[in-house]
Amino acid sequence: LAPVPATTLFQEFRNVARALRGSLTRDTADAPQGWPPDLRQLGGRISHVSTAFGLRAMLLLEGSLAADLVPVATQLSDGASPTGGYAAKTQSEPRPEATATVLLALQQIDGTASLHKQLDTMRKNITDFERTRPYILTTLLETSRQLAPGSELTADLIRSLLDARRPYGDLLLWPEKVEPLLVSPAPSIAHTARAVRALAQVAKPAPEVRAALDQAAAWLAGQRDLGNVSEIIDRPLEDGRIEQHYIRHFTAAWVVKALI
Predict the structure, then answer these.
(1) Which of 223, 226, 220, 217 is nearest to 251 (CA)?
(2) Residues of 14-49 as b/e, b for ≥16 C-beta within 10 angstroms?
(3) In 3D, which of 175, 112, 238, 142 has the Cα closest to residue 122?
(4) pTM (predicted TM-score)
(5) Could you list the pLDDT tens digit for every one of the 260 residues in the chain?
(6) How far apart are CA 57 and CA 35, in angstroms?
């Protein structure tokens, strides 16, 4: 048998785009609505956050918003809460990290759109809890840097992210969480990579930021365990309950992004 020719990278991208488009949840009139959180459960209830990730991926793969995805983008834009924020499927009300994820997608779709109300909602929803989670801080910083690069919010998020480091020998690195009562949390490759990626995108970084990037990137370059990790955002609510939101981190991809 003749050898099967290798698939080109362009063909792989087209295959991924085709698979993503085939995973869209559609209404009874076959109009696309968005993506569910788990693509293994086709036709599931869509999520604003998963739809934002899906649209961003399609923009990367196809270069622009295809006509058949315009209704998806419109529904995402119109899906904000009355206060202007967004929530993931497992969240009871708008959360800043969910709002940040959606806003970044909307900005990439239409760079002229006014997103100040939603950005202000994101800022108001940042509490002491959010400052203990590097994942949340990096998500917020990536959006704030894009939408309001010279703002007080961006400067505050940079400071909070730097403060979330912990000492490991002679290095300052990022663990998964930095809550006050935690005892010696281990450094996290995925969270350090996400932090490096977010800080590296800051325009004209201060010397402290540059020093943080240099030592963290050198540490990342020496790591060999690039297995994927996950975390649960266990946010305490005012009524005493705990709201849990599950996050998967694709470690190798984040390390590549950080080092590039």
Answers:
(1) 226
(2) eeebeebbebbbeeeeeebbbbbbeeeeeebebbbb
(3) 142
(4) 0.92
(5) 667 777 898 899 999 999 999 999 999 999 999 999 998 888 888 999 999 999 999 999 999 999 999 999 999 999 998 878 999 989 989 999 999 999 999 999 998 888 888 899 999 999 999 999 999 999 999 999 999 999 999 999 999 999 999 999 999 999 999 987 777 789 999 999 999 999 999 988 999 999 999 999 999 999 999 999 999 999 999 899 999 999 999 999 999 999 99
(6) 12
What is the amino acid identity at position 139? Answer: T
